[in-house]
Amino acid sequence: MKRFNKNSEDNHASISDFDTHSTVSRDPDRKFGFSSMRAMGIFVVFLMIFSVLFSVSVILKDPPSDAVLETSGARVLRINSNEAIGTEEKSSDTVDYPVDKLLYGLLTADFDESSCLSRYQSASYRKERQQKPPSYLISRLRSYEALHKRCGPYTESYNKTVEQLKSGHHSSTTDCSYVVWISFSGLGNRILTLASAFLYALLTNRVLLVDPGVDMTDLFCEPFPEVSWFLPADFPLKSQFASFDQKNPSCYGKMLKHNNFTNQDNFKLPPYLYVHLVHDYDFHDKLFFCDQDQNLLQKMPWLIMKTDNYFIPSLFLIPSFDHELSKLFPNKDLVFHFLGRYLFHPTNKVWGLITRYYKSYLANADEKIGIQIRVFDVGTGPFQHVLDQILACAIKENLLPEISNEEAIISPSGTSKSKAVLMTSLSSGYFEKIRDMYWEHPTVTGDVIGIYQPSHEEYQQTHKQMHNQKALAEMYLLSLTDVLITSSWSTFGYVAQSLGGLRPWILYKPENAKAPDPPCRRAMSMEPCFHAPPFYDCKAKKGIDTGALVPHVRHCEDMSWGLKLVHGHDQI
């Protein structure tokens, strides 16, 4: 608009000069008419110039604030190759990308934004690598939300089904069926298993109810509008959750082992069944993944589930689910990415931890690199072989530059970059050594490397509220990086890579206190690994390699017996 004001002043000056000449004319009347026509012409030209400049200014002006655009569900994310998302200063190479706060329809707009800031703000913290969810998945999620609203806690259907549960009698006439997820294991496992339980609920038209445990309400917002997904405190079986294991009389695997279902004509179905899908589950528990058993389980109004496994890959091997899963997820390596972005929205307290750290340490970097370290060695770290492996991977894959012994490196003007490295580990030792290395020595490229670590809790404290809030914040921060290095077997890393839509470099698990060579490899897909899958052909009733049955289910890079989803042969 400054340019327009200047042009306006110039035009006014021209008109003034013209009027001055007209006053010294020898034929005032004649000249006045001529002058009026010229003045009118100039005025018309002036209006034309004004309209053009105004149009250009509207097109080129900065995008309006979030408050204006958020009513439409979309806004503009401005990303500069030399600046961070959300900074004030703009430069000539700024590019505008549309950002949809509803993630292209994945999320519903039926929430008060202030109650869960992360739900609609998270899109603006990610570069334009958002994947568009399939329209069929969006449709099924809206249908599930309607089901949850009709059957969720304290609805008429829920109350009726709970009364039947209390009676101790099985009923096949219930309006709604449920799967109850028991809060169990560490935070990474809980996130992965909860996504697995939700997909199972979606496939079997059940309502998912979540045992809040000690801290789930402090970590995550409600994902479904109007009706909570948290199991009510007065649920009749809640006090028994701690005793649910393979020896429980209601355990499905135990009942199969004792042939309780052999003669179904004389066997009276119980009001609920417990399915044990924990890593120590046995042959009979694993029959959960057979079609014949799913037919029986479908008759149960209540399934109580305990698991520490991301069991989604094996759902893709159940024939009756295959068609529906193909429509829900045409791209097989985006399953947890979509489910995670839909279900897991950090509470405002956790979101504050995330955004404050991001803006303080990561936002202004040209490139953000995540390094997630999980060490399974016994003893007190940091371990030199682990440090050597991390650096070997980062430098070999050109994620970090080598250091120079020269006193200073003069890089060509404008070629150096700033790189922010976000490290997460229970120990501060690896962070301190890498930070000091890049502080004490210049890089051969002239790049400036900043090393940051939000916390170092020293040991895992699964049931401490602030410990888990920090852990969730760090998973989320890792998901906001541009490239990622993760540790083998770590569910912490699985969550970060899948939420961020990142195919990480996976550090091989060290053996005999030696750094592996090669130190790492690129993951086939961003999907997590199912650590304890069944190896059984339900039809042939014999053992089989379940990682070789279909092209989209393969063995994991970091755990040779595990299973993970991939998309096509190009990633194998």
TrEMBL record:
<keyword id="KW-1133">Transmembrane helix</keyword>
<feature type="region of interest" description="Disordered">
    <location>
        <begin position="1"/>
        <end position="25"/>
    </location>
</feature>
<keyword id="KW-0808">Transferase</keyword>
<feature type="transmembrane region" description="Helical">
    <location>
        <begin position="39"/>
        <end position="60"/>
    </location>
</feature>
<keyword id="KW-0961">Cell wall biogenesis/degradation</keyword>
<comment type="function">
    <text>May be involved in cell wall biosynthesis.</text>
</comment>
<comment type="similarity">
    <text>Belongs to the glycosyltransferase 37 family.</text>
</comment>
<keyword id="KW-0472">Membrane</keyword>
<dbReference type="Pfam" id="PF03254">
    <property type="entry name" value="XG_FTase"/>
</dbReference>
<protein>
    <recommendedName>
        <fullName>Fucosyltransferase</fullName>
        <ecNumber>2.4.1.-</ecNumber>
    </recommendedName>
</protein>
<dbReference type="GO" id="GO:0071555">
    <property type="term" value="P:cell wall organization"/>
</dbReference>
<dbReference type="GO" id="GO:0008107">
    <property type="term" value="F:galactoside 2-alpha-L-fucosyltransferase activity"/>
</dbReference>
<dbReference type="GO" id="GO:0042546">
    <property type="term" value="P:cell wall biogenesis"/>
</dbReference>
<dbReference type="GO" id="GO:0032580">
    <property type="term" value="C:Golgi cisterna membrane"/>
</dbReference>
<keyword id="KW-0328">Glycosyltransferase</keyword>
<keyword id="KW-0333">Golgi apparatus</keyword>
<keyword id="KW-0325">Glycoprotein</keyword>
<dbReference type="GO" id="GO:0009969">
    <property type="term" value="P:xyloglucan biosynthetic process"/>
</dbReference>
<keyword id="KW-0812">Transmembrane</keyword>
<dbReference type="InterPro" id="IPR004938">
    <property type="entry name" value="XG_FTase"/>
</dbReference>
